[in-house]
Amino acid sequence: MKLSNRIKNISVSPTIAIATKAREMKSAGVDVVNYGAGEPDFDTPSFIKNAAIKALEEGDTKYNPKKGRDLKKAIVEKLKKENGIDVEPSQVLVAFGGKHALYSAFQVTVDPGDKVLVPAPYWVSYPEQVKLAGGEPVILKSSPEAGFKIRPQQIRDHAADASVLILNSPGNPSGVMYSREELEAIAEVVLESDMSVFSDEIYEKLVYTDKEFVSFASLDKRLEERTLTFNGLSKAFSMTGWRLGWVAGPQNVISSMAKLLSQATTNPVSFAQAGALAAYIDPSSANEIEKMRVEFGKRGKHMMERLNNLAGVKCCRPEGAFYCFPDVSENYGRKLGNMNVTDSMSFAEAALESKQVAMVPGCAFGEDRCVRLSFATNMEQIDKGLDRLEEFLA
What's the Cα-to-Cα distance from 71 to each of 79, 152, 259, 265, 289, rounded to whole Å? Predict the structure, then answer.
């Protein structure tokens, strides 16, 4: 059967081999410490699950979710109260997760040949989703020395030819968050150009410093017509398997995305939206988020401190999300375990093979000097894996 050129153009994730090997080892009874998780290890709060169960029992199982309209209203209220963004319910679209919302947005805003600015390190799906829309990802490199942040001049250098800029703060994989002043400087460049901005704010609730979280669209009223704000339930409410995300922005884009989804998926799961509504309106939510945030903050600080005590490892503090992204490149050129380590992939392969520690190589995120370790696991597992890495690098 013939395959499209579109799918042939998509890269296979360099992490597949590592993930597959780790699963095979665990299935064979090997004690693998897995730092690859991109989801909270907490359960979905019970009041959210109960709301979905109630919706099921009440027959909310049809194409038009009973709670769908109320959920959009709740998102509108959340954006106004917490983010300083004013939209109408018709400017909100609920999708099958944040990834689905992003994919749909690229499909309706990017034409073949359009250039999309992607700051690196980046979430693995950004460049591939751009390519699926026929666009050209233009990678803006940062570095550990620059705090994994791009500078306004880097954007300005490409602004004349670019149609979209992607921002992700707090970021995956770096855990870095832009300050208000840094975002204002970026906004100034954006407003000088014709670019739109995709602001991925999925980790907004998981911030571990006293730095203020700022939504990009809130910085200037003119940005509201130039910005799509992406968010969802996966990270803040530990609802990764529920597959619910959303996007808010200009009416013409949201309407076009709705038209696309009408031909692709119809609506997201009806009773899942009842759970999402509870997440946004139940007074228990703030306490549940805070418990998770505080615990992640402790774990992230602990992991960072231990990583910085390992041979040839430098790790900046994760300000948000739940990842450490240490620079391990001083160890390239060494023989570790039975392997000659030359890059992030061979480093990750050697750690898994020699010490049964699974991590994500930085090449998957556009930064080959680093590896990503998730601290979305308990402290015992964190220390077990870091003890093994200490032996590995000694």
Answer: 12, 36, 19, 18, 19
Q: What is the pLDDT of residues 101-135, one digit of tens each?
A: 999 999 999 999 999 999 999 999 999 999 999 99
CA distance 40 to 206: 11
Distance CA 134, CA 148 (A): 27
d(CA 162, CA 281): 39
pLDDT at residue 15 in the model: 67
- CA–CA dist 55, 41 (Å, integer): 25
Q: What is the pTM of this model?
A: 0.94
CA atoms within 13 A on the CB side of 35: 34
CATH 3.90.1150.10, applies to 5-43+286-393:
yes
Show the tokens assigned to 159. 């602004």
CA distance 271 to 285: 19
Q: Say how far apart CA 218 and CA 213 lie, in whole Å.
A: 11
- Are 27 and 364 in contact by the 8 Å Cβ rule? The answer is no
**Architecture of the domain delimited by 46-284:** 3-Layer(aba) Sandwich (3.40)
Report domain extents, the chain.
Answer: 5-43+286-393, 46-284
* Start-end of H helices in 133-232: 152-158, 180-192
